[in-house]
Design brief:
mainly beta, 2 domains, seven-stranded antiparallel β-sheet, 1 helix
Length: about 210
Amino acid sequence: MSNEHFGFGSHGNGFNGGGNATYSFTLTSGAITAVAVTETHGSRSSTHSVDIGPTTSYTVGTDGKITETSVVGNAVETTVYVAGSTAGQYTIQSETHTYIAQGTATTRLDVEPYDRAKFTISTGGAVTAVDRVLPDGSTKSVTIGSSTTYTQLAAGYVLEVQTHGSHSNYEVYHDGNGDGVYTEIAHGSGSTVDLVGLQTQVSSINGAL
């Protein structure tokens, strides 16, 4: 439904993670529900709330460190925040990127965090209705045109194929954590997907999807 690309989690909005940036987190019932970043340049500073992407999660360690994990494309970015010199403010201690290898798969993992959908699937496996999930979590019904088909490839995997003349494009959506929301995990030309190869690539990040 969309092939837009987005950056990583809370510090992917133009902040370089340098020494002039500090972060604050809102903790609600043990979960981080909001993030803000303050940038300081000389005597001037500005604070902005930042987006928590759909494939971004946080954990708070017993040592007080906060770990952010974000999945975009075929990469997992892990950022560790530590308490700064000002109470309630954190700085970045480390950032690591782990890339998920395509291996011998002919379909490459390419997670699009904001291209999400909900599918109504019959007991026979037919996709009978589609709702697009908007960035705020609300949904919008999708009218399925004659040039678009949806197929359940396996439990938790739906293939969308759009055909225009002799040319086709596909997108694969996956619900890895069972919450009913499917995230685009691959796209390309044609209509053939290496599902087994894709499942192998996605196996380590199912919880984020």
